[in-house]
Amino acid sequence: MFMAFMLIGIVFLLMSFALSESGVVEYDSEGSYECGFSPILNYRLPYSVQFFKIAVMFLLFDVELLLMMPMVILLNESLYGGFIIFSLLMFILVLGFLYEWNSGMMEWV
Fold it and tell me: How does the UniProt record describe the way this protein sits in the membrane (predicted)?
């Protein structure tokens, strides 16, 4: 059984060598790919601050969803305690959202 798997592995290895393109190496395929920027020509260009703002907002609202999912189970198990904790979490998140909106962080278009 082991020999059969070894034989199959060797056959696939030989097929990949036979079917692959070899010989011509292009410059673009040898270099690294970093977010669409050429690492050799313009490696000193700064990233946009708005990119980081959008990334932080995404992470905050993603964590919000992660915290809200277990709250559904908590609301089913405890009537008032879970509702108070869920309301407090939602209040803090709405305050953060309103702060971001008023400070102009939502204007990224």
Answer: Multi-pass membrane protein
Tell me the pLDDT tens digit for each residue of 43-71: 566 667 777 777 877 887 787 778 777 77
Contacts (Cβ under 8 Å, ≥6 apart) of 59: none
Q: How many domains does the chain have?
A: 1
Q: Which two tokens stand for residue 21?
A: 């393109």
58 in a domain, yes or no?
Answer: yes
**pTM exceeding 0.85:** no
Cα 87 to Cα 22, 44, 96, 101: the distances in Å are 62, 46, 14, 21
Q: Does 89 map to a domain?
A: yes
Q: Which domain holds residue 74?
A: 46-109
